[in-house]
């Protein structure tokens, strides 16, 4: 049975689309490290769904299982039990080549440390995923221009990461994550190195982009103010989803 996250306000435009299959479905997901008495159970039967155009925030203390869940959702790790489905595809049915193609074509990653290539300009960083897919130059350049404009950095295309503020670098990272028109964006503490106001600005941008691009986002964060901007919040504690109190249901 699917466990319910602790808050599920209706997204803008909610209606018939809610009846559509979820973009991501996590079913009884379990992940253990080690065996026997020394085994560490990072996830203990986690289940939830996320829909297209929806931002789901993961909350929980360090060690609660957030990063493990992100790694499994992104096809970077293999569960001990349960499944992750992305747009109807069960990740456990894919071999290494299939997972590589999935991460390249269907998932965008945003990291706390930005992960930009220092010697490349903002435009070149955004274009890296498109080069990997051998997208023709003219099409690639048009997509890069569109994305930099989307995140408000059209005038900074030729600047390198070291010439940009932290918030601007994270905007470049978000544009890069969107380059291949992914189904899912995974962000691990994307505002962790930013001041509170810049972090809130990045989260507002991420939410707006998720809705405008029709992408699903799974974001791990510690900041309660940022959780307020999510469409739903999934709280983890000791590898399990925390059920909402009866008064909150």
UniProtKB/TrEMBL annotation:
Organism per entry: Streptomyces katrae
Low complexity composition-biased segments: 10-22
Name of the featured protein: ABC transporter ATP-binding protein
PANTHER family hit by this protein: ABC TRANSPORTER RELATED, IMPORT ATP-BINDING PROTEIN
GO molecular function, one term: ATP binding
Annotated region (Disordered), positions in chain: 1-22
PROSITE patterns in the record: ABC_TRANSPORTER_1 (PS00211), ABC_TRANSPORTER_2 (PS50893)
UniProt xrefs under SUPFAM superfamilies: P-loop containing nucleoside triphosphate hydrolases
Residues covered by the ABC transporter domain: 24-249
UniProt xrefs under InterPro entries: AAA+_ATPase, ABC_transporter-like_ATP-bd, ABC_transporter-like_CS, ABC_transpr_LolD-like, MacB-like_ATP-bd, P-loop_NTPase
Annotated keywords: ATP-binding, Nucleotide-binding, Transport
């Amino acid at each position: 049975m699917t466990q319910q996250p602790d808050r599920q306000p209706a997204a803008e435009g909610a209606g018939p689309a809610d009846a559509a299959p979820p973009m991501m479905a996590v079913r009884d997901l379990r992940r253990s490290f080690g065996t026997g008495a020394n085994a560490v159970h990072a996830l203990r039967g986690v289940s939830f769904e996320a829909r297209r155009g929806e931002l789901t925030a993961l909350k929980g203390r360090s060690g609660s299982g957030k990063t493990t869940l992100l790694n499994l959702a992104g096809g970077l790790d293999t569960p001990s039990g349960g499944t992750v489905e992305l747009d109807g595809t069960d990740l456990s049915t894919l071999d290494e080549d299939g997972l590589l193609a999935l991460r390249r074509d269907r998932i965008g990653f945003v990291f706390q440390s930005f992960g930009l290539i220092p010697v490349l300009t903002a435009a070149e960083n955004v274009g890296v995923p498109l080069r990997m897919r051998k997208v023709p130059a003219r099409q690639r350049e048009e997509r890069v221009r569109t994305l930099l404009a989307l995140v408000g950095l059209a005038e900074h295309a030729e600047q390198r990461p070291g010439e940009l503020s932290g918030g601007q670098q994270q905007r470049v990272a978000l544009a890069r994550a969107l380059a291949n028109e992914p189904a899912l964006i995974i962000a691990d503490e994307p505002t962790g190195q930013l001041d509170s106001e810049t972090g809130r600005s990045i989260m507002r941008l991420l939410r707006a982009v998720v809705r405008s691009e029709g992408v699903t986002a799974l974001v791990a964060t510690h900041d309660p103010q940022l959780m307020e901007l999510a469409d739903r919040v999934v709280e983890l504690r000791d590898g399990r989803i925390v059920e909402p109190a009866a008064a909150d249901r």
